[in-house]
Amino acid sequence: MLDPRTSEFTAAFVGKLVSTLLSKVGPALGENLELLLRAVLSKMQQAETLSVMQNLVLVFAQLVHTQLDALLNFLTSVPGPTGASALEFVLTEWCSRQHLFYGAYETKVSTVALCKLLQHSINSNDSRLQDIQIKGDQIFSTSDGILTRSKCATAPERWTMVPVLVKMYKLIINELSNQVETNLSKSQIEDEEDEENDWEEEDNNEDNNEDGAAGDSSETVTLLSLLDKYSPASDYSGYDFDGDEEEDEEDQDALNDPLYKVNLQQYLTEFLQQLSQQPYYGTFSAHHSDCERKVLSTIGINT
User: Fold this and answer.
1) Nearest Cα to 298, choosing from 262, 272, 279, 275?
2) By CB count within 10 A, which of 13, 25, 162, 202 is most buried?
3) How far apart are the C-alpha atoms of 19 and 127, rounded to whole Å?
């Protein structure tokens, strides 16, 4: 499945398979771990589809959580496709797609891994990470007037170049913004459902009062009394859905991972608040966009 000569789609689920293998018997793989990671790197050079690249990147993200030092040593000892280290190649591909990753658990794995990489580099002054430069924010020019669709198609994209640690920092802020928005939407939906339930209860009470006033309840034929004469839908084939089955179908390895229960909004909020108190924070805040400043201001960080 990881053979670079085969289609990239053969690796659509191999990332999950490799991650599971590493979590179960990682230390016991020995030299085979290096061979496995080399195969993942080869497949990454071929991959273009987001789902495939995400699965492959998550292999390295999982290793950040379990074998960070060994991972960094391996990636800096292996050349990437451009002649730079495999570490630069992996981080470039990872950071350029992180904002597109999907799946609640997968997002936690990759985002928290970025936090750990950033914290590791700061704590250890690791030059292997500090020396890497990648694309930061896209540059949009207003000097050429209105940007038409044809101009956008022909004009080359321009980007700022920033240290990879700054890019990680920006991605962390972006994910915090996503989490705030998602949780706010969930809260609004729950409030609307509660309001609907309150209205339904009130309507039911009014209906019951009207039925009582209409006459003897024994003479009233209700929908519930009619349905009671028939077998429930669960007795028929194909109607055995149980709401609890959704949880049963969840990946058990993910459910057993402590990251699964992490409140990502709270985790990122605390991480950024602690980072903002450090004397070196100016290195990061100098690269803030207006949108990033607004997000940070919501958690009490003003720059």
Assistant:
1) 272
2) 162
3) 27
Residue partners of 293: CB distance under 8 A and separation at least 6: 302, 303
Give the DSSP letter string of 194-211. HHHHHHHHHHHHHHHHHH
Distance CA 222, CA 233 (A): 19
Q: Could you give phi then psi for residue 243, rounded to 5 degrees?
A: -55, -30
- Written as six digits, the tokens of 215 are 């006459």
State the virtual CA torsion across 107, 111, 113, 115 in degrees, nearest 10: -160
List, for residues 268-302, the tens digit of each pLDDT value. Answer: 999 999 999 999 999 999 999 999 999 999 999 99
Query: Phi-psi region for residue 25, left (φ > 0), alpha (ψ -120 to 50) or beta?
Result: alpha
- Nearest Cα neighbor of 2 from 64, 56, 61, 49 is 56
Neighbouring CB atoms inside 10 A of 114's CB total 24
Lowest mean pLDDT segment, chosen from 81-95, 120-134, 192-206, 242-256: 242-256
Q: If pLDDT is split at 50, 70 and 90, which confidence band does 265 have?
A: very high
**Token pair for residue 273?**
């608040």
How far apart CA 107 and CA 102 sit, in angstroms, is 6
Give percent of the chain with pLDDT exceeding 70. Answer: 68
C-alpha count within 13 angstroms, C-beta hemisphere, residue 82: 9
